[in-house]
Structure formats: structure tokens, C-alpha cells
Automatic annotation (TrEMBL):
<dbReference type="Pfam" id="PF00440">
    <property type="entry name" value="TetR_N"/>
</dbReference>
<dbReference type="GO" id="GO:0000976">
    <property type="term" value="F:transcription cis-regulatory region binding"/>
</dbReference>
<keyword id="KW-0805">Transcription regulation</keyword>
<keyword id="KW-0804">Transcription</keyword>
<dbReference type="GO" id="GO:0003700">
    <property type="term" value="F:DNA-binding transcription factor activity"/>
</dbReference>
<feature type="DNA-binding region" description="H-T-H motif">
    <location>
        <begin position="32"/>
        <end position="51"/>
    </location>
</feature>
<keyword id="KW-0238">DNA-binding</keyword>
<dbReference type="Pfam" id="PF17932">
    <property type="entry name" value="TetR_C_24"/>
</dbReference>
<dbReference type="InterPro" id="IPR036271">
    <property type="entry name" value="Tet_transcr_reg_TetR-rel_C_sf"/>
</dbReference>
<dbReference type="InterPro" id="IPR009057">
    <property type="entry name" value="Homeodomain-like_sf"/>
</dbReference>
<dbReference type="InterPro" id="IPR050109">
    <property type="entry name" value="HTH-type_TetR-like_transc_reg"/>
</dbReference>
<dbReference type="InterPro" id="IPR041490">
    <property type="entry name" value="KstR2_TetR_C"/>
</dbReference>
<feature type="domain" description="HTH tetR-type">
    <location>
        <begin position="9"/>
        <end position="69"/>
    </location>
</feature>
<protein>
    <submittedName>
        <fullName>Transcriptional regulator, TetR family</fullName>
    </submittedName>
</protein>
<dbReference type="InterPro" id="IPR001647">
    <property type="entry name" value="HTH_TetR"/>
</dbReference>
Length: 210
């Protein structure tokens, strides 16, 4: 990467960080490109050099959140060998990531609903990607004999939908409990939905340090 490319990347990241703060404070619809330019210390033309419009900035932030979730979930899954432990690890890391990025989660899961066709298309892609991740690891559990045969495509959609609803409820609560407090019940319900025991062999449903 050349020096100019490095400077350009720094400016792009500065724009994204400024946009995230403004979107979180004012909402997607009320945020303006002028505000984003001023907050990022970049000219309006400089912002448009990197992003053709406000929606492009928003979609880039959405990609960032999705990539963070996917990377952390895949790493947590790879660190485990048992099928049940893999699913538990993925659930913990998803809840932990949303808990640590509440403003970003609210922006995408609540405030931006109806932000436009491109946003809806991107959200559908992300939903399918995460449901597919769940389905692949349920398939692995079936092959290993840990899980009874089940339509894993549907199960993946159900698991993702349940997690999405729990996180959305937490985001809408004006005085929410810690997100990790949902973990034991959500874990048990998801396990039972595919015929898995609601607890592991050790019966541990505690929230470990991430």
C-alpha cells in the first residue's frame, strides 16, 4: 500500500467512525452528509470521493458489523471440538458482540428498518449467511451423531430468528437487563428445538468470560 493509499484508508475510516456516531445520535433518516463531513474533519467532496451517498456509508457500516459477528462466531466455533460446545460458543459470542456494540446493533436492527431496498437486500443476505452458518454446524452435529436428523436449513432460520428477536427486545427495552441474562433460557430452547439436551454433560449454563 502506498503512502497516499494509506492516507485515503485513514480518511475513509474516519468518515465511517463519524457517520456511526451521527447515525447513533440522530438516526439514519435525520443524519446529513454535511454533518458527517464536518464531524470527520473531511471536506464534503472528500466524503463523496469515498461514498456516493449516505446509504453507501450505512451499508459499509452494516458490512463491518456483519463481518465482526461472523469472524468472532467462526473463531469461537473453531476453538471447540464438540458439536454442542460449538453451538454454545457461537451463541455466547453473538450475544457478547451485540452487548458490547449496543448503539450499532440498535442502529441496524431497529432504527434503520425501512431504510430502502438496498438495505433490505443486504439484511436478507446477512440473515441467510448467518442462518447458513448455523445450518452447516448442525449438519456436522448430525453427521457425528450428536443431533437427530432435522431440516437444518429451516432450523438455521429458526435459530437466527430467535436470536434476532431476543436482541431486538433487549434493544427496545428502556431499562434492559444484561443481555447475557437471556443466555440460559435461549440456549435451552435452541437446543431442544433440534432434540439436543438442554444442558451439557456438566450442566453448566454460566456466562464465561469472553
Amino acid at each position: 500500500m502506498t503512502r497516499e493509499q494509506a492516507r485515503s484508508e485513514v480518511r475513509r475510516e474516519r468518515i465511517l467512525e463519524a457517520a456511526l456516531a451521527i447515525f447513533a445520535r440522530r438516526g439514519y433518516r435525520d443524519a446529513a452528509m454535511d454533518e458527517i463531513a464536518a464531524a470527520s474533519g473531511t471536506s464534503k467532496g472528500g466524503v463523496y470521493f469515498h461514498f456516493p451517498n449516505k446509504q453507501a456509508i450505512f451499508l459499509s457500516l452494516l458490512d463491518r458489523m456483519a463481518a465482526l459477528l461472523m469472524t468472532r462466531a467462526e473463531a469461537a466455533i473453531a476453538a471447540e471440538t464438540d458439536s454442542l460446545a460449538k453451538m454454545d460458543a457461537a451463541l455466547r459470542v453473538v450475544l457478547d458482540t451485540f452487548s458490547g456494540h449496543r448503539s450499532l446493533a440498535r442502529l441496524f436492527l431497529v432504527d434503520a428498518l425501512g431504510a430502502g431496498r438496498e438495505f433490505n437486500t443486504k439484511m436478507l443476505e446477512i440473515h441467510r449467511e448467518f442462518a447458513g452458518l448455523i445450518a452447516r454446524h448442525l449438519d456436522e452435529g448430525i453427521r457425528r451423531g450428536d443431533i437427530a436428523p432435522v431440516d437444518t436449513r429451516v432450523a438455521g432460520l429458526v435459530w437466527f430468528g430467535a436470536i434476532n428477536e431476543v436482541v431486538t427486545d433487549w434493544l427496545l427495552d428502556p431499562d434492559p437487563p444484561p443481555l447475557e441474562s437471556y443466555y440460559p433460557t435461549l440456549r435451552a430452547l435452541l437446543r431442544r428445538s433440534v432434540g439436543m439436551p438442554s444442558e451439557g454433560p456438566e450442566g453448566d449454563v454460566s456466562w464465561p468470560s469472553m
